Amino acid sequence: AGGAALFLGAARGGGEPGTPALCHPPKHPAGAAAGAAAVAIAVKQVLYRYNLRLGRRLHSRSLIAAAMDHRSDVVSSAAALVGIAVSLAGLHLGRRWMLYGDAGSSVVVAALILRIGVQVALDAVHTLMDRAVPDEQLQRYRDVIAAIPGVERIDELRARDHGQYLIVDVKISVDADITVADGHGIAADVKERMRAVFPQVLDVLVHVNPYYRE
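^ that's the sequence the OP posted. Answer follows.
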């Protein structure tokens, strides 16, 4: 991405270093810059899909963040390509205002990258603060636990998000007349079943309460 950015900058020209391009008379970019942007879009789109698929499969926030970085490169390269195309069209049509399309696309790119950066940062902050798992995900856990033989009722269910894995806390009620060993066996079944069905669940803390049918 860095090499492509340097190539684009060299091909597109620009004004004095340290000053915005919009403050200078418009300059048309070289046609090679459009080709570089197109290549960057294709390569980064492939990397984005690969990292996103792998990150979701491994439940890795770092890989998903890397995928979002590649996506920002795709978006920025696409905006740059549009700006270059507008500038080149303005050159051929004799429309001076269209020559600012290349510089104007930089403003759009900056806004898009800022938006993606904020999304990634918020996701990281939520993970560090033990973000609660959404209700629809908890309902899937509840359905699995309720189907385990011996579980009479689910009294409380919580899950803590630790990035790549989850910790589940559950309080279940079992028949008050069974033995302690039987109650322990049901709790073990809950833990084993949850970890088997949901690979991202690292551990399940099960508290057993007595259930009185009357």
